[in-house]
Design brief:
Blueprint lengths: L1 E3 L2 H13 L4 E6 L5 H13 L2 E6 L19 H10 L4 E3 L3 H4 L18 H4 L3 H16 L3 E5 L3 H13 L5 E5 L19 H6 L1 H15 L5 H15 L4 E9 L13 E8 L4 E8 L1
Helix pairs in contact: 6-7, 9-10
Length: 281
């Protein structure tokens, strides 16, 4: 596996692969890799000639009170995991390489960032769309892979790709979970022992909402109240940022149950803010 830190070198190599008729599968990450990332690499390996991963902790998507400096980093470990899991090339630029001092161009998908995480993290998704657009230009993928756990991010990026007529496909890969249901995340390392014991209640609350919908409950308020009560009772250390049922395409809260939909939540534990969702077709 080759490790490239120059965006010009990475772009030249990707364009050469495309000229040779090889397809590129791309998995952008912020590193500190876990089973969720490895599932992206595995899917990309099945569908493409070349697999490219990137590791870049993007400062543009962190707010002033968020954990950019504390975000876990271990490039040596991550490089080894990439090499062991089918990645052909790792693009690992530093901040100065990705953003010149006079950087002044941004990409924003309007509307979809008003809901869910966007409501409490202003500017976050502008940072995501800007860096991902740069990574698409640099790595030239035919297909790119994102985990379902970050479903708002994925939905916004799908809209960006469609609106700007980018010649690539976005693939959604199912959320990878611990044995007790907790969605695997790089931020889980920040949880205390007590927080980790309570954290599975996040997914349990979503599963309860899904069960109520499957049983025919149509009242969104009742479903949200029951799921929230379960979360409050079983994860008292957590504060619910949001727990909503939203339209799968528009991400706006539903007034009545209509599929496809997403049951989504964000919970602030003392150690980390955790997100999770269930998609229902």
């Amino acid at each position: 596996m080759e490790i490239i830190k120059s965006k010009k070198e990475m772009q030249a190599k990707a364009l050469a692969w495309r000229k040779d008729g090889k397809s590129i599968g791309f998995a952008p990450t912020m590193g500190y890799l876990h089973a969720g990332h490895l599932s992206l690499f595995a899917q990309a390996r099945k569908e493409n000639d070349i697999v490219v991963a990137s590791i870049f902790v993007n400062p543009m998507q962190f707010g002033p009170q968020e954990d950019y400096d504390a975000y876990p980093r271990d490039l040596e470990r991550d490089s080894r995991l990439c090499a062991e899991n089918g990645v052909d090339c790792l693009f690992a630029p530093d901040k100065a390489e990705m953003y010149e001092a006079d950087f002044a161009t941004y990409v924003q998908v309007e509307g979809l960032d008003n809901y869910l995480c966007g409501a409490s993290r202003p500017g976050h998704f502008r940072g995501v769309t800007t860096v991902v657009m740069k990574l698409f230009a640099i790595c030239q993928p035919n297909r790119t892979y994102f985990g379902q756990k970050d479903i708002q991010q994925l939905t916004i990026l799908q809209r960006m790709v469609g609106d700007l007529d980018l010649p690539l496909e976005i693939r959604m890969v199912p959320t990878q979970r611990e044995a007790d249901g907790l969605a695997i995340s790089s931020r889980n390392v920040f949880l205390s022992e007590a927080e980790r014991k309570q954290a599975p209640a996040i997914y349990q609350s979503l599963a309860l909402a899904q069960k109520l919908i499957n049983e025919g409950e149509k009242d969104v308020d009742i479903i949200i109240e029951m799921a929230s009560n379960h979360l409050h009772k079983n994860a008292p250390l957590g504060h619910i940022d949001y727990l909503q049922i939203v339209d799968a395409a528009k991400l706006d809260p539903l007034l009545k149950i209509e599929k496809p939909l997403v049951i989504a939540t964000a919970v602030k534990m003392p150690g980390a803010r955790l997100i999770d969702n269930i998609y229902m077709k």
